[in-house]
C-alpha cells in the first residue's frame, strides 16, 4: 500500500516513506479551545482532547505514533507542563488513538485507563479483531490504511481496567460508558456535571457535519446499539475521534443519528466520517 518501495524508501530514495508522512503529519495539528477547561487536539487522523482539573490534566486518546511532541506542545500552549498530566484515558485499541500512549505514560505520575475488553489488544498480548466491513466500507478502509504511517505501535501499560459505570477520576465525576461494537472494549466518558461526552469512534461526524455511527466496526449491530444508548445521554458537547466536535446541541444530533440508523446495520452507506480508522 502507498507509494514507497519494498524497502520502505520513497520513490526518490532519500527519505523513508514513514518519515516523510510523519513530517507532513506534524505540520497539521491544531489546538482549539472548546470550552474553558477543554482543548480539542485536531489531528488529521484520530483526534485527542485535553481536559483540565485543579489537580492536573487528563488526556483522552493520543493520535498516531509520533504525536507525543505535538501533544506536549499543546499542553505547554495551555500553560502547563507535560508532567502535569495525571491521567491518560484510551477509548479503544486502534493505533490512531493509542499511537503515542506508551511515551506519554512516561511523562510523570500518569494513570493509564482503558476498558477491560480492549486491554489485551492495547497491551499487544493479543491481536485486535479485524473489522467486519460492509462492501461499501472496503475501498474506504483500504484507502485509509494506505495513508497511515507504517510500523507497529509501542504498546502502553494500563494501570486500571475499566468496566461500564466506573468512575474515571476526572471532570467532576466522569464515568466510563461501555460502547462495544467498533471494538469489543470501546469506551466513552460522560461528564454529567458538564454535559460532555468523549465518544472515541463509537460515533463520528462526516465532513459535512452529520453525526453517524462510526465505521470499521468489529460488530455492526453492537455499534448501532451503542449509538442508541449514547443518544439517551443528556449532553451539550460531543467529542469524536473522527469529525469535528459539537459544542452545543449534541444530544439532539445524536438522537437524530440514532433515528437514521438502518434496522440491520448502523450506518448510511453514502456517508462516512473524515479519515475514519
Ligand atoms: Zn479512530
Ligand atoms: Zn477506531
Outline:
This protein has 277 residues and is α/β, with parallel strands linked by helices.
Labels describing this entry:
Metallo-beta-lactamase, Chain A; alpha/beta; 7-stranded mixed β-sheet; binds zinc ion; 277 residues; 21% strand; 4-stranded mixed β-sheet; disordered N terminus
Textual characterization of the structure:
The chain has a single domain (17-271), classed as Metallo-beta-lactamase, Chain A, CATH 3.60.15.10. It has eight helices and 13 strands. It has helices spanning 17-26, 68-77, 95-98, 101-104, 119-122, 137-147, 220-230, 250-260, and strands at residues 30-35, 38-42, 48-53, 56-60, 85-89, 111-115, 160-162, 175-178, 187-191, 196-200, 203-205, 211-213, 237-240. The protein has a seven-stranded mixed β-sheet with strand order 1-2-3-4-5-6-7, with helices on one face. A four-stranded mixed β-sheet has the order 8-9-10-13, with no helix packed on it. It has a two-stranded antiparallel ribbon with strand order 11-12. Strand 9 and strand 10 form a beta hairpin. The two termini are 16 Å apart. Mean pLDDT is 87; it is low at 1-27 and 266-270. The structure holds zinc ion (ZN) (2 copies). One zinc ion (ZN) binds at residues 46, 94, 96-97, 201, 241-242, 277. Residues 46, 94, 96-97, 201, 241-242, 277 line the site of one zinc ion (ZN).
